[in-house]
User: Fold this.
Amino acid sequence: MIRLANQADRPALIGLLGDFAEEALAPLTTEHLAAAVTPILQGSELGEIWVLEHEQQLIGYLVIGWGWGIESGGREALIDEVFVSHAHRNQGLGTQLVEAALTRAKELDAKTVFLETEQSNPESRKLYQNLGFEIEDSVWMRKAL
Assistant:
């Protein structure tokens, strides 16, 4: 079942976020992850977290953030993270999470949905391309503040 995350999901969700960070070789502390999800779980207009539940256990999640872009002509969505636990992969569950996010973005009148994937992860690019996403020439840059 896919549903919107709530405060009761916080401990399990932070565990899954940690699993994702470990897989991505991103050294994020539990405190960092908790601080990042707390405002979203409190109903912030920043975004939403959707969870995948199986037998009363969280086995995956998707984080979607909302923004605004002139080039897009209005509301934009950013799929920030998609994660399905290793034991439940290759069953179409990631596709279901992304499709749920696309439906939600349409409901909220988003004009464009963006996502980022690592150059070294062709499996995720194949998934996203099968869902209609196109590779752009844009280069993301960042500066931590």
Summary: The helical segments are 10-23, 30-41, 93-107, 122-130. The two ends are 37 Å apart (CA to CA).
